[in-house]
Amino acid sequence: MNTPQLETHRLILRKFTEGDIGALYEILRDREVNTFLPWFPTERMEDAAAFFRERFAASYQKPQAYSYAVCLRRDNIPIGYVTLQMDDSYEMGYGLRKEFWHQGITTEAVRAVTEQAGRDHIPYLTATHDVNNPRSGAVMQAVGMQYQYSYEELVQPKGELVTFRLYQKNLDGAEGRVFRRYWDRSDVHFIESF
Q: Which of 47, 93, 127, 152 lies at a C-alpha separation of 20 to 30 Å from 191?
């Protein structure tokens, strides 16, 4: 299945199209929105177009992809995104324009993608957040993900050393499974107690 359209009470989650590049630019250009993401804010519309081609359009060519534009039902214009990497990490990522923060929109969108992944027999999902961005972790917790461990990673292209927390949800009921790649490749890893 390749990015099936999803609908929730407030949202439409669908594929990005070339017609959405202006809306994508609005998401990617905001410095505050992109503070904790692994790329710099987009400076030009051409950069947003390249991002669309490399990150979204390319994923739609694969047999299975989860690369969603998050749109309000009232106008179907993208205000954010939810993605799921289709490698052994099954790592979710998300972003939302700041004027829509603190309304539960990201949680609603991530929950819908999580449920679809379960219907499509994805065995588990992971997600990570910078320890300095606990609101992102709150989204992970709200959709039933469990904290597993923390690790340090040098994030490129920003060149910043970041401590991440990894969360996981086993959709197939396999209790005790932990995705360990980030733990294994990091010299600094630990389990926090909350």
A: 93
